[in-house]
């Protein structure tokens, strides 16, 4: 039997969490993050936060770009020379990266902050008023007939 791994789609989308949660539960899929590691959290009914671990990167080495339904986070590490000697072991990743996230319709970036080596990107889904569901009042047959009769009587008078 063949199985399909939807992990790459799940890891790079925001706003489709209900669909992917159902697919994950059905398939029992567990995702393994790539560099840099990140979390996607739901902070409200229509609010999300992406947190990337970007230890060693400064504000001037990171860029965030939002276009159409995509969020692109880039990190470009400047080459530093050792001040006090040679480095014997380098375990802290300092490589450049580019991470792309697909955003659902009407999801917008509200802000970003860098603190303690974590880049927080806040997102909000703002659905336009024209696309929000509306309640339509149901008028009974008797009430509608009275309205028509009243209108005809007023026109005749």
TrEMBL record:
Pfam families cross-referenced by the UniProt entry = HSP20 (PF00011)
For whether the record's keyword set contains Zinc-finger, the answer is: no
What are the entry keywords? Stress response
Taking the record's annotation, the residue ranges forming a coiled coil are none
Q: Which domain of life does the protein's organism represent?
A: Bacteria
Mind telling me which Gene3D superfamilies this protein's record contains? Answer: 2.60.40.790
Q: Pinpoint the SHSP domain residues.
A: 29-141
Keyword field contains Cell membrane: no
Q: Which family does it belong to?
A: Belongs to the small heat shock protein (HSP20) family.
List the protein's name.
Molecular chaperone IbpA
The organism named in the record is Kaistia geumhonensis
